[in-house]
Specification:
By secondary structure, this protein is mainly α. It has two domains: 118 residues, Leucine-rich Repeat Variant; 104 residues. 77% of the residues lie in helices and 0% in strands. The protein is built from 13 helices and no strands. Helix 1 packs antiparallel against helix 2, helix 8 runs parallel beside helix 10 and helix 10 runs antiparallel to helix 11. It is elongated. It starts with a helix and ends with a helix. This is TGRM2 protein. It comes from Oxyruncus cristatus (sharpbill). One of its GO terms (molecular function) is microtubule binding. InterPro entries: ARM-like, ARM-type_fold.
């Protein structure tokens, strides 16, 4: 009964009309992650239903606070977040194009925390799957992090890298028009290509051979 009441209090705070009260809800969630991690883990799907609303809150202060809390929660809860990983990745990436520096910075911290503390195979899958929905700075930030994940995942699960990360590279190399209007797009694509080449060696060119000629040529230019 006590746990049920505590969760209800959390939900009420997170859905309150006043933004200050919603921020109290974020603070309470963070406290419960520290004091009662099992309670949070056992109810993570329902809790995330409410918490994800605050990660996309129309109030910038609430949104920033929620993203900052998320980065700390990822470090504390780790694998307990697996049931909500798809929504977590979506919530983070949706904020990477924010022009608000505080929100953007908090989203980057959450992105870094997910790579540092969550299962790297699962994270690589979800970020790769998300790429087709991304644009702008979010696309650049996630591509750069995929390079880091490739190096860590390939020795353990080469088939995951081939199935999920390679199509991301082919998509970039096959685009006549860069998906982002930024000089940085070449830098992050080159970084991803080189990370894949370091991990896969000659196998990368073998896989590229089945791609259109312009992809093969662009890959050769980078390498």
């Amino acid at each position: 009964v006590e746990e049920t009441e505590l969760l209800q209090k959390l939900y009420d705070l997170l859905t309150a009309k006043e933004f200050q009260t919603r921020m109290e809800g974020v603070a309470l969630l963070l406290d419960l992650c520290k004091s009662s991690p099992r309670l949070i883990s056992n109810n993570i799907v329902q809790i995330f239903d409410y918490f994800v609303l605050r990660i996309c809150d129309y109030n910038k202060k609430v949104k920033q606070r929620a993203l900052e809390a998320l980065a700390l929660m990822i470090a504390m809860l780790r694998d307990a977040l697996n049931p909500v990983l798809i929504r977590l990745v979506e919530a983070i990436t949706n904020n990477l194009n924010s022009k608000h520096l505080g929100i953007y910075g908090a989203a980057v911290k959450a992105l870094e925390a997910s790579i540092a503390h969550l299962d790297k195979v699962s994270v690589l899958k979800e970020f790769s799957n998300r790429m087709s929905q991304l644009s702008g700075q979010a696309l650049l930030d996630v591509t750069e992090r995929l390079s880091v994940l490739v190096a860590r995942v390939y020795p353990r699960s080469p088939e995951v890298v081939q199935r999920y990360a390679l199509p991301v590279l082919w998509s970039f190399l096959g685009n006549k028009v860069p998906p982002v209007r930024s000089a940085n797009v070449r830098t992050v694509v080159a970084k991803l290509a080189k990370a894949l080449h370091e991990a896969m060696g000659s196998r990368l060119r073998q896989h590229a051979a089945s791609q259109p000629q312009n992809v093969v040529k662009n890959l050769s230019n980078i390498l």
